[in-house]
């Protein structure tokens, strides 16, 4: 299988879908001249023209509204909001309109729109440009929230998102664009709402998504050297949430730690932990621990920023706490 | 270094111990290996040794008080070292402390552990497995954080019996049981599921049910004669074995003594309304006890027929779940192996089991003369929580009547 970057995988997905379906169009800030803030749309304008790849003013509210309107009008827009931090400006279009049109109009029209954006921190962009706000959108019924961790997932999930008839927030991670990985040749789709066991293990389940799935895998490697075999479940989609894969794993390992870059309070880990205890209480051998971002606005200073974002060391520590044995 | 001294586990079946005497007072220096207390374990009084050197800073359990194995009974530390958590732990004992250094009395500090009788900390999965296997969590020592019983502990318990030492010191002073010599070659074989179950249930039975044993010698002359006659009448198809007659005899006896058709369950006697008799069958993979239900209601020929099928199915590994319907009494017959008499372990939760030896001619005294007669020794193992000696003796006596006057078996 060819090894390409996350960025290239996304570009391939867009190219394939635009070729397949002429209703697919892209608009957002810098997507034409600059090839997208992170280079994902690079070259697309050359192949598909300036009617299907369009730059917009710096006005996310307008991008959001135009995307919802275009989708209701029969197109399949992919709107690039640059980062999730700016999605707040478009959140009226996303939460109040995109998520509700299908329901409020009795199913007469749906909103097949994809909002692409970057989430997460770690690139020294300071607190207003480094947030992991996916939980805000994952909270809303009517939205789908996708958070791929690998190039292969990025491609397969983006293609599914574009084909989905309902609004999807497609949240890429700023630090993953250069990550390389094997991507199958030819066309393939990865269904939304399906988690994946990325690593098998018998002792504990690490539940993660986006870049934290890779952090969890690194932690699992380290734990393995100490005799603890961690299973890593990559959620891939936060809504709809595939709890079955998580529960199956926890029923096997009897322990779980969630790993997320977001703040811990009211976070994704809180949801996962709660659902595990509701649905697999009798399989737990230890409390569920949550590894999450430190609850501060993310600092600009590199050392402080690093300290605020979970890393494999913190995951390893959290896991080990669950294996403390006394009096053995 | 703060070190907690815990109630040691001095024997396989020890679950609690009583502090008989403190040999050291609070504030005394103690050295490793020195006796600091005497503990009564229901069987013997043993000495508790310090496994660290330091100062006996706090006595947490007064003399005369009984606490479970693993319970913290004292704290040894350096003289001025702060002891985290001690305030809370020892608060009720504060008043007793001065008394303890003088002439301690059992009543001086009663409250220390009374309030602490801890809820058993066990993880949900540990509880689920324990519940499924009928294991009492009280018997398991938790090794998880804060002493929580975790899945491993339950599984270890099921596999090997209780975790041995409650909280062994890094260098235990109490000699650990000698490990197997290293130089003997061996292989570890996995247990069949039957053997796993058997091992667990038999160990559980011996641990939980106080067994006592009664042996009786039964004259089988008439029974054998009857059997011969009946078999001549019935023909080859459904020949009646000695075991079948025993099943019928026990069935009738249980009708007369319903209190022996019972279990000790949740602090009550559970008297069963059906008489289901299990027959112990030895297989290569272990022991199984398929059950003949409602033995009191079936004629001898039917029992013979069912028993034959059951044993056949057991030997060929084709027993059905129905064949293990809950038994209320078990018969174990080793007579065919020239065993004259033996003692069996009760199949829990039943109240008793009958171990049957060979029928062999023995000299007996009849009317002052020595004569040969066909005799059979049976030994009843009974659960003393359910049956007392006299009831068990009467049970055996009645059983003997049924077999010595075997027409009872065909009425």
Q: Could you explain how this protein is built, in words?
A:
- Chain A is of the alpha/beta class.
- Chain A has 13 helices and 14 strands.
- The mean pLDDT of chain A is 96.
- Chain B is 27% helix and 25% strand.
- Chain B has helices at 86-90, 96-101, 111-114, 124-133, 151-160, 193-208, 221-234, 242-256, 300-315, 389-404; strands spanning 3-6, 16-22, 29-30, 35-40, 45-49, 54-59, 66-68, 72-77, 211-219, 262-265, 268-271, 277-279, 281-283, 286-288, 291-292, 329-333, 352-366, 369-383.
- In chain B, a hairpin with a 2-residue loop joins strand 13 (281-283) and strand 14.
- In chain B, helix 4 packs parallel to helix 5 (151-160) and helix 8 crosses helix 9.
- The chains are: A alpha/beta (328), B alpha+beta (411).
- Chain A binds chain B through residues 254, 281-286, 321-322, 324-328, and chain B through 70, 123-128, 141-147, 150-151, 166-168.
Give keywords.
heterodimer; A: 328 residues; alpha/beta; seven-stranded mixed beta sheet; five-stranded mixed beta sheet; 13 helices; 20% strand; globular; B: 411 residues; alpha+beta; four-stranded antiparallel beta sheet; 10 helices; 18 strands; elongated
């Amino acid at each position: 299988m060819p090894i390409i970057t996350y960025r290239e995988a996304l570009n391939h997905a867009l190219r394939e879908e635009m070729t397949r379906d002429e209703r697919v169009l892209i608009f957002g800030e810098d997507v034409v001249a600059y090839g997208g803030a992170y280079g994902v749309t690079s070259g697309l304008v050359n192949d598909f023209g300036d009617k299907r790849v369009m730059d917009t003013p710096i006005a996310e509210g307008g991008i959001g509204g135009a995307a919802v309107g275009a989708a209701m009008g029969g197109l399949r827009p992919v709107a690039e909001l640059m980062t999730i931090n700016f999605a707040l400006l478009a959140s009226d279009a996303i939460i109040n309109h995109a998520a509700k049109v299908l329901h409020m109009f009795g199913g007469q029209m749906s909103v097949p729109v994809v909002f692409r954006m970057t989430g997460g921190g770690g690139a020294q962009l300071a607190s207003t440009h480094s947030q992991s706000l996916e939980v805000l959108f994952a909270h809303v019924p009517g939205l789908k929230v996708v958070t791929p961790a690998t190039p292969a997932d990025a491609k397969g999930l983006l293609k599914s998102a574009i084909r989905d008839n309902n609004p999807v927030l497609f949240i890429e991670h700023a630090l993953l664009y250069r990550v390389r990985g094997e991507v199958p040749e030819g066309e393939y789709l990865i269904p939304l709402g399906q988690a994946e066991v990325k690593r098998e293990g018998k002792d504990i389940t690490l539940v993660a998504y986006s870049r934290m799935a890779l952090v969890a895998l690194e932690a699992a490697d380290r734990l393995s050297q100490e005799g603890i075999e961690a299973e890593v479940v990559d959620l891939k989609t936060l809504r709809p949430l595939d709890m079955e894969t998580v529960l199956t794993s926890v029923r096997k390992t009897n322990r779980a730690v969630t790993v997320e870059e977001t703040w811990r309070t009211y976070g994704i880990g809180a949801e996962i932990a709660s659902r595990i205890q509701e649905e697999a209480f009798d399989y737990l051998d230890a409390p569920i621990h949550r590894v999450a971002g430190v609850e501060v606005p993310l600092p600009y200073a590199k050392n402080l920023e690093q300290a605020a974002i979970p890393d494999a060391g913190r995951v390893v520590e959290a896991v080990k706490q669950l294996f403390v044995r006394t009096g053995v | 270094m703060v070190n907690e001294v815990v109630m040691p586990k001095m024997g396989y079946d020890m679950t609690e111990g009583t502090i008989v005497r403190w040999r050291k007072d609070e504030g005394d220096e103690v050295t490793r290996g020195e006796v600091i207390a005497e503990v009564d374990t229901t069987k013997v009084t043993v000495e508790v040794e310090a496994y660290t050197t330091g100062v006996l800073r706090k006595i947490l359990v007064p003399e005369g008080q009984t606490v479970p194995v693993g319970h913290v009974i004292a704290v040894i530390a350096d003289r001025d070292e702060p002891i985290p958590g001690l305030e809370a732990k020892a608060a009720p004992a504060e008043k007793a402390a001065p008394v303890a250094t003088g002439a301690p009395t059992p009543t001086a500090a009663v409250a220390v552990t009374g309030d602490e009788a801890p809820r058993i900390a066990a993880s949900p999965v540990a509880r689920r497995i324990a519940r499924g296997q009928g294991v009492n969590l009280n018997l398991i020592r938790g090794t998880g954080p804060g002493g929580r019983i975790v899945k491993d502990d339950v599984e270890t318990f099921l596999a090997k019996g209780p975790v041995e030492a409650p909280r062994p010191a890094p260098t235990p002073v109490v000699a650990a049981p000698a490990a197997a010599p290293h130089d003997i070659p061996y292989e570890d074989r996995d247990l069949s599921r039957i053997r796993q179950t058997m091992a667990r249930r038999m160990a559980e039975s011996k641990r939980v049910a106080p067994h006592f044993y009664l042996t009786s010698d039964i004259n089988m002359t008439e029974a054998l004669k009857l059997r011969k006659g009946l078999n001549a009448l019935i023909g080859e198809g459904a020949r009646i074995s000695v075991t079948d007659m025993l099943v019928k005899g026990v069935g009738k006896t249980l009708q007369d003594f319903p209190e022996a058709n019972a279990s000790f369950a949740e602090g009550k006697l559970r008297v069963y309304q059906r008489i289901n008799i299990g027959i112990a069958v030895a297989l290569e993979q272990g022991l199984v006890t398929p059950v003949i239900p409602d033995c009191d209601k079936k004629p001898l020929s039917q029992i013979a027929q069912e028993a034959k099928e059951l044993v056949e199915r057991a030997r060929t590994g084709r027993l059905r779940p129905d064949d293990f319907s809950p038994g209320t009494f078990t018969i174990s017959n080793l007579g065919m192996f020239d065993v004259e008499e033996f003692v069996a372990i009760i199949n829990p939760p039943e109240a008793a089991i009958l171990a049957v030896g060979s029928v062999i001619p023995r000299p007996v005294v009849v009317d002052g003369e020595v004569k040969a007669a066909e005799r059979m020794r049976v030994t009843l193992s009974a659960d003393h929580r359910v049956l007392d000696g006299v009831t068990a003796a009467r049970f055996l006596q009645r059983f003997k009547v049924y077999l010595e006057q075997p027409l009872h078996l065909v009425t």
